[in-house]
Automatic annotation (TrEMBL):
Family: Belongs to the BCKDHA family.
Name used for this protein in its record: 2-oxoisovalerate dehydrogenase subunit alpha
Essential cofactor(s): thiamine diphosphate
Cellular compartments per GO CC: mitochondrial matrix
Domain named Dehydrogenase E1 component: residues: 133-438
Record bears the keyword Phosphoprotein: no
Principal cellular location given in the protein's record: mitochondrion
Transit peptide among keywords: yes
Sample GO molecular function, one term: metal ion binding
Amino acid sequence: MAAVTELHRYFPRLKYPRRRLWGCSISIMSLRSGARRICLRRIVESSLCLNGSQPSKIPLVWQQCRSVASTPTAEKVLFPGALNSKFTNDLNFLDPADKDAIPTYRVVDQSGRVLDKETGVDTEDDEALALYENMVCLSIMDLLMFEAQRQGRLSFYMVSAGEEGIAVGSASALSPADVVFCQYRESGVYMQRGFTLDQFMNQLFSNSKDAGLGRNMPVHYGSRELNIHTISSTLATQIPHAAGAAYALKLQNHQNPDVPPRVAVCYFGEGAASEGDFHAALNIAATRQVPCLFICRNNGYAISTPTSDQYRGDGIASRGAGYGINTIRVDGNDIFAVRRATKEARRIALEDGGRPVLIEMMAYRVGHHSTSDDSFAYRQKVEVEDWKRRDNPVTRLRKWLENRCLWDEDKERELRSSTRKEILQAFEKAEKDKKPPIKHMFDDVYESITEEQKTHIEELKDILTRYPKEYDIDQHDGGIESLNELMTSKK
């Protein structure tokens, strides 16, 4: 009885029956809610100190139980599904057209002039030069690889023209320990984090030095050393993966306070934001409060579909607010704005144990969606040329460097010439390397070769032996002997 009396102090809105108190549970009727069965022993032990000391703090779950109904004079909604909403007697539907669009953050204008002299660009001159060199390297590599695909030397490629500042700028503001999930237009992220030209070329040619052992199509890079998960062709699947990884990082950050905390970073296009995975990922990230940066590249087109046919709302940033996520829209052609926004977003993501942040990076996709696409079939060439001439991230950063007398035409010519040579050298070297051993077709599936796999291997060996003209196995490192090695090593 004393325990029940004490409980009444902490649950003033609940009514307790006076009978059956000797049982293991009591029936509690809250206002406008059904009966709940609550273990009396657990309530007493968790909420009261039986040794006579002051009661401990009430768990959060019981604090939430107080918002089950509103008082007659309440001015705010107390429904659990819409906290902090005020009551009104005006019948007004929310019309997005009546609201101003979310502003786009920028640091420098199209001429490379700093808009806020006091704040500046928050980037040292040497660092800005390094960023520019990476952006130029990326643009030259894209041009050469696109031409190589047209020559039949590569099977597939995707360029980043118009979006170099998003990838290079955001990656430069992250910690090397942060876990990254890319889509397929983030070559600049890899380059900025240390992916070498040789590694790019080895993956594009799927040769024996490819870290993926030739199992992925070109441009689907991955690097365990750089903490970047391998790219998948399937659209938007990396978004919920990033949310799950961020939850794991949240636990690790809490369990290892002496280790610098990490965040998960997820890149995707505005077209991927139309997939269900996007909504599921943002919702779980918000409800679990995980340290994750969702970086959306809104480049105007999802393959051949313009944004006008993708959504009617205010871009992708408006969706972040709907999920209760800190959100910002940034000029993706301004690498300084990209860097500063990413830095601040990472800081916010690590506050209070973790929280997600959505960044919508605005850009224009200058190139075709991929080498399998002809964008002039669904947009005017003059539109593309206008964007290339009027504004792009490489030109804007160069103008800033020139304004500070850090760059000139001679340096530009020397950089482009030397960079082109380095890329071509890596390209020619990777092209000459042999393909990965055939045995890797069966590796890393099971811990040991199964009987079914042994049958497949024997069938493959038989076909390759009987039809040598149809299958050039000499281009693969180790030839057919690699299959014999696999059978021997796995027995």
